Amino acid sequence: MRALPLLFALVLAPSSAWADANSGTSGATFLRLDQGARAMGMGGAFAAVADDASALWWNPAGIARSSFTDILVGHTAHIEQISSQVFGIIRPVKMAQFQRAAYGVSFTYLSIPGIEGMDANKNPTGTLDANSMAGGFAFGAAVTPEVTVGAQAKMIREKLATESGSGFAFDLGAQYRRDRLGAGIALQHAGPAFKIGGVSSPLPMLYRGGLSYALFPRFTMALDGEKPTDADARMHVGGEGFFTPTLAFRMGFQPMKNVGSGAGYSLGFGFKGVVGGGDSLGDGKTWWERSQTDIEYALRGKNAFLISFDYAFLSFGDFSNTHRLTLGLKF
Description:
The chain is mainly beta. It contains 3 helices and 16 strands.
C-alpha cells in the first residue's frame, strides 16, 4: 500500500496538466487542479483579475474587492472520469482598520472512480475508489485604495481504499489595481509534508504572479507566470471581453507537455443579470439592457440579487477535453 500515494499523484498529474518529469513528487496534488470557469476561460491568467468568490482558489487578496456577498458553486469534468466540485462564499465586513475587508469559506471535493489497485508485487487487487477534499477559511482587506492583501488556511483530507491522510496548508496573496493596470502575486498550498499510507510527501506549493490591463472599457488582457516546487515554470495568457454588460466571452492559452498537440487552448463565456428588486432605477429598462454601473446599483435595491453562469472548455491534446461550469449568486 506504500505505492498508493504515488499512484494517487500520478492519476491526478495529467488532469492538472503537470506532465513534467518531476510531476508526482508531491502529495495532495488535487490542490493544484484549476477551479472556476471564469479563470479557466482566460487560460488561468487570473492572479491580478480575481475579484469574486473564485479568488478563493487563485489569490485570496481578491476577495476584498467584492462589495457584496458572493456565492459560487462549480463542477469540473476532468479527464478519465475524474470530477471535482467546489463551493465558495465571500462576505464583506466593516472594520475600522481597513477601507474594505471580507472573509470567505471554500470547499473542494474530488472523486476518482475505478483505480486499478496492485500489491507490492504488482498483482491486481481489485478496483479502488479515491476521494480528496479541502476546506478553507480566508480573510482579505484593502490596506490602501489600490492594494489588497489576503490569506487562507485550509484543512486537507485524502482517502484511497483503506488508506487516508489529513493535513493543512495556507495561501497568501496581494493585488494592486490603479486605473487600467492590475497586478497580483500569490503563494499557494504551503505547509508541512502530507502523509498518507505511511509515506510523507511535500505539498504541491506554487508561486503565482500576474499582470492585467484593460485595453478597452470592455476588454481586459492578462498574463500570469507560475512556478510549482515540483514542476517547470509556465506562462498563462488570456483575455475577457463583454459583448454587453451581461454577456462575456473569454479565451486563453497555457502550454502543456507530453499530452499531444493542440493542448492548452481554452474558450469560455459568461452570462449574468439582476433578478428582483423591482425597477431600482425607475427607467423602465429590463435587466439585460442595463450597464455594469446599473447592475451594481440595482444590486443595492431591496430583495435584488445577481445570478451568473460561466462555462469554460480546455483542450487536452490526446486526452479527452475538460469542461467547467460555475453558477454564482451575488446579493
